[in-house]
Design brief:
It is a single chain. Helix content is 23%, strand content 35%. It has 365 residues and is an alpha+beta fold. Strand 1 and strand 2 form a beta hairpin. The strands form four sheets. Strands 6-7-8-3-9-10 form a six-stranded mixed sheet, sandwiched between helices. A six-stranded mixed sheet has the order 13-12-11-14-20-19. It folds into two domains: 226 residues, Rossmann fold (3-Layer(aba) Sandwich), CATH 3.40.50.300; 124 residues, Beta Barrel (OB fold (Dihydrolipoamide Acetyltransferase, E2P)). The protein binds adenosine-5'-triphosphate. Adenosine-5'-triphosphate binds next to helix 1. It holds the Pfam family ABC_tran. GO terms for molecular function: ATP binding. Keywords: ATP-binding, Nucleotide-binding, Sugar transport, Transport. This is Sn-glycerol-3-phosphate ABC transporter ATP-binding protein UgpC.
Length: 365
Amino acid sequence: MGRLTLEGIGKDYDGVEISRDIDLTINDGEFVVFVGPSGCGKSTLLRMVAGLEDITRGEMCLDGERINEIPPQERDIGMVFQSYALYPHMTVAENMGFGLKLARTDKAEIRRRVEHAADILQITRLLERKPKDLSGGQRQRVAIGRTLVKEPAVFLFDEPLSNLDASLRVEMRVQIAELHKRLNATMIYVTHDQVEAMTLADRIVLLSSGRIAQVGAPLSLYHFPKSLEVAEFIGSPRINTLPVTVVDPGPQRTGVRLPSGEMLAVAVDGRGLGAGDTATLGIRAEDFVAPEQGEARLMARLMVAEKLGYETLAHLQVEGAEGTVTQRLDGLAHLEEHQVVDLGLAGDELSSNLVDGGQAAFLSD
Ligand SMILES: Nc1ncnc2c1ncn2[C@@H]1O[C@H](COP(=O)(O)OP(=O)(O)OP(=O)(O)O)[C@@H](O)[C@H]1O
């Protein structure tokens, strides 16, 4: 079992609040990713779970038992660090079994567990090698193996792939997803990479300034962000934001004026807003429609087209607004430099909304 509950968890360093009001239940077998910008407190929270940092406030329980005061080695929790920290003079097998040896585990049992973990991680043929004779990806697998042999109820990963190059990161990401499926163990994974978060997580915990900004399934955060901050963090390219003016707030639909001067009825509850209020319209790059299908249009000029083969990202300057918006187009769309294009907007595509920081934010789903 590996059910973790965090109630009112907080952490101070020298009187400064780093984490606050963390209420979270992580179910047995769940893959939860802590994500957020640098310094938001992801690692601190993970290290509190591991027992490597004292908890200033709140209660943390594993399978119903309070673990606040339990030292790391006595928690049924294993951690994979960003730096592999393998012992250079030991073989892979010795590195993997070292923790068990220190815990005075029987030799035959150590061998059984090391061989079993090596089999799962497909590194059996590397067991007699030294770390210097391994690639970065192989070292990372050994580091995971070292945790795997402990057979913990909860696995913690602290940015485990950040030292690897892009293609290896994708490969290891798939391996970690497979490992989770195979073990069905509780896993908590820290990253600042929202793609890793989106692809690995059953649930994402998005942290901001030491607090939870939103918890939910990846697509629920993508489609129904509770705030502009969440909307802007999740999704690549970043969600487009356009300033609009509220004209006709209503319970089901709210009329807004776009920078082009055209009106658009957005499918959001605008109660609480007043005519004349400034709002932010959030539009995902794939949510622009053909001008003839839109209820309103924006005029824009192409600044840069990034042709990625499978898609083209068009960066456009919208007339009447500052900055650029990005439109996602299929394949090798034919675009000419500085071409003027009409972007269509359909109010129904823009259906989730929130009032953010006193401003209304309409976010496209
Ligand atoms: N030992 C410490 N003493 C004082 N402040 C600390 C200590 N460790 C971390 N902090 C501060 O706590 C905040 C959260 O740090 P943390 O490492 O948890 O963030 P993070 O989200 O994991 O960031 P990153 O993605 O850059 O690793 C930061 O402002 C950091 O400077």
